[in-house]
Amino acid sequence: MKKRSNPYAGLPDHCFWSRTHRGKDIGDIDPVVKGQFTLKPKMKIATAGSCFAQHIAKHLQGQGYNYFVTEKAHPIIADQVARAFGYGVFSARYGNLYTTRQLLQLARRAYGEFQPKEDIWEVEGGFIDPFRPNIQPDPFATRAEFDAAREVHFAAVRQMIEEADVFVFTFGLTEAWVSKDDDAVFPLAPGVAGGEFDEKHHGFKNFTVSEVVADFRDFIALMRARNPKVKVLMTVSPVPLIATAREDTSVITATSYSKSVLRVACEELQTTEKDVFYFPSYEVISGNYTRGAYYSGDLREVEAEGVAHVMSLFMRHYTKDGGSAPASDKPVDSFQADVQKALDIICDEEMIERAVK
Amino acid sequence: MTKYKLAGFGHSHLSAYLRAYMQGSKAGNYPGLEMTFGRLGMDTFQPNFETVSTESAYSASATGNAPSRLKRLGARLKGGGYHSFDALDRPRVLTEALERRLTHMMRRDDPDAILLACMGNEYNTMGMLQHPEPFDFDLPGSGIPIEEGKTVIPYAMMRAQMTALCEQNVLLFWRFFNEAAEKPIFLTPPPPPIADKMHIMSYPGAFAGRAKQYGVSPVGLRRKMWLLYCDILRDVTKDTDTTFVELPDPAFVDGCLAKQFWQEDPTHGNVDYGRLMLEHVTDLAFGAGAAKGEGK
Questions:
Q1: What's the mean pLDDT in A63-77?
Q2: Contact A350 B131 (CB under 8 A)
Q3: Contact yes or no for B125 and A145 at CB 8 A
Q4: Cβ–Cβ gap A354/B42 under 8 Å
C-alpha cells in the first residue's frame, strides 16, 4: 500500500465538504455513498416510525416493491377510506411511533409482555386507544369493537415482527408523555385527543441518547429472537418539532436537541449492531447545501422534491439497477368493478328501454 | 284548478316515476300535475362525469371565476371530505356540458318543484352480491343482527365507505341542484331491497353470470346497506331546503320492498311503485291529492 502523506490524502471527494456540493444541483448531491445491501422485489419491507416513514412506504409500493402490510382493511373498503382509518399508512395499523420507547412498548404489548394500566379512554361517542389516538376519524363505537380491533392489531404486529425481511424505522422525537404509574409512553399527551391530563399520573420525558439506544437495541433483540435474519434500516425524520413541552426552551433548540440525540443514537446503533444501517434522509432534506429548498413555507413539511431526492438515492443505492421492480402478477380485486358493470348494464340500457314502452 | 309542474331528474330509478306518470296522465288520473323528465342515463346527457385534478379543485376560489362545480369540490376537499376512487387519486365532477343543459332545462321548464332519483345503486355495488370475503356490519338502531362467521367491518368505516361512494355519485347531482335549482327539491332514495333471492336469481338481467358466481347477499346485509345509504342522504340534506323523501309504509314488508312493487329485475320498482311514489312526492310537494286535482 502506497504510504499517504497525511490521513486525508487520497480520500474520495465525498469526504471533503467543498468537493461534495461544488458546482452541483442539489438534486445531484449524494450523502449516501453506498448502500449496505440490495433489496430484492420479493423481500417483505416493513415500515414504522414517524410521519416521514410514510413517504418511504408509499414510494416503495409505487415502484413495485413488496411493501409488507399485515393489517389490511376489508377489500370492499376503498383505499382512500382505508387510509383515513389508518390502514396501509404503515405496515400495521399502529399510527405514528415517534419514539423508540413507543416501538419497544408496542412490541412488548403485542406479545403480552406489558399491559399498561391506562389502556383505554372513554370519550363521547365511544372509546379511544391511548396508544394510537388518531387511528380513525371517530372513536371505536363499543368496547367490544375496541377490544376486537386491538387483538387484530397485535396479531398484525407480531406477524410484521416475525416475517419482515427488512424493517425501516424513522426516528421522530425524543419528547414524550409517560405514565408515572408504569412508564407507559403516550404518542400524544393525555387530554389532547382523549383522556385527562393528571400531574399525579402523567409526566414529561425527554429521552437521552443512551435511552434511545437501549430501547432500540431491546426492540431489535425481541425482533431477532423471532426473525434472526431481518435487516434494519434507520432514518431520522427531518421534520422539526411542532411544539416543545419545555417551557424555558425555544422549539428551535428543542428540535436541535431531539434530532441530534436521534442522529447520534443511529450512529451508535449502526456501529455496534449487526445488519442495522443508517440511511441519511435527514441530511438529504435538512443539509445546509439545500439552503432550505426542501422545506415548504411553514419550514416543517417536506416538499415533494425533497422526498423525490431521498427516494431516488434510496433506489439508486438499495436496489439493483436503481429502478422499479419487475411487474408482478398480483390479482386485482375486481368484485366491485364486476358488480358495477352489471348494475350499469341493467340500469342504463334495459330500464330505459322499458321506460319508453 | 291549479296545475303543478314537477321536473324529475335521475337515472334508472326515475323510470318507475316516468311510467307511472305516462300511464296515469293518459288515463286522466293526474289533471293537477305536469311533469318533465331529465333521464340522465340517456346518450344525450353523456358523459355525466369527468375527472379533475385535486389541485384545480383546491385552487378554485370561492370568489373567483372558477366553475362552480370545482368550487363545490374544493370546499368539500378542504373540509376533509372523501373524494375519489380513481387510481390516480383524481376526484370526479359533473361535466360542464351536463350542468349547462340541466340549468337550461330548469329555466325552460320553470317547475314548481324538482324530484331527484339520481344514481341509487351505490348500496347495491357493495351489498347485492356475496363478496368472496363475506362481511357484515352493525348498524346501530336497526335491530338487524350481524351474521355469524362474517368479517365484521366497523360501523364507522362502513359509513365512511358508503359516504365516499355517495359523494362520487348521487351527491354530485344533489349538490349541483341544491346550488342551482332555486326550487324545492325532493330527494328520493332508491327502492329498498327485494328480499326474495329467488326473484333476483330468476330475473338477474346482466347479473346472470355474476349472481351464479358470487350468490346473492343475505337480506339482512342488503337492508342495512340500504338503511345506511338513506341515513347518509338524510344527514347531508338536513338543514338545507331539500326534503329527503321517506318512503311511505305501503312500500315495505318487513323492511324490504313489498312484492306488488317488484319489477322483473333485481333492483327496481315497477309502475305500481312509481305510482305510489309519485303520488307520495306530489302530496309532499304540493299538498294531499294535488296531482289528482284534489288540492286547492
A1: 92
A2: no
A3: no
A4: no
pLDDT per residue as tens, chain B (296 positions): 789 999 999 999 999 999 999 999 999 999 999 999 999 999 999 999 998 877 777 777 566 777 888 888 887 777 766 666 666 667 889 999 999 999 999 999 999 999 999 999 889 888 999 999 999 999 999 999 999 999 999 999 999 999 999 998 999 999 999 999 999 999 999 999 999 999 998 988 767 778 888 899 999 999 999 999 999 999 999 999 999 999 999 999 999 999 999 999 889 999 999 999 999 999 999 999 999 988 65
- Chain B residues touching residue A80 (CB < 8 angstroms): 82-85, 89, 164
Residue B15 in contact with partner chain A when CB distance is under 8 A: yes
Contact list in A for residue B15 (CB cut-off 8 A) is: 351-352, 354-355
Partners of residue B265 in chain A, C-beta under 8 Å: 346, 350-351
Furthest C-alpha separation in chain B:
60
Distance from CA of B296 to the nearest CA of A (A): 31
Query: What does the alpha-carbon distance between residue A17 and residue A287 come to, in Å, rounded to a whole number?
Result: 12
Q: How far apart are CA A178 and CA A117, in angstroms?
A: 12
CA-nearest of A285, A237, A289, A240 to A263 is: A237
CB contact under 8 A, B133 and A74: yes
ipTM of the prediction: 0.90
CA distance B99 to B45: 10
Q: Name the minimum distance, in Å, from the CA of B208 to any CA of chain A.
A: 9
Q: What is the CA radius of gyration of chain A?
A: 23
Q: What is the dihedral of CA B194, B199, B205, B211, to 10 degrees?
A: 90
pTM assigned to the model: 0.86
> Which of these, A195, A49, A85, lies nearest to A130 by C-alpha position?
A195
Which of B19, B129, B157 comes nearest A77 by C-beta?
Answer: B157
Is A171 within 8 Å of A89 (Cβ atoms)? no
Residue type, A222: L
Query: What is the identity of the amino acid at A147?
Result: D
CB atoms A137 and B41 under 8 Å = no
Alpha helices in B38-150 (DSSP H): 54-59, 68-78, 96-109, 122-127
Q: Specify the length of chain B in residues.
A: 296
| Residue B129 with chain A: CB contacts under 8 Å | 335, 339
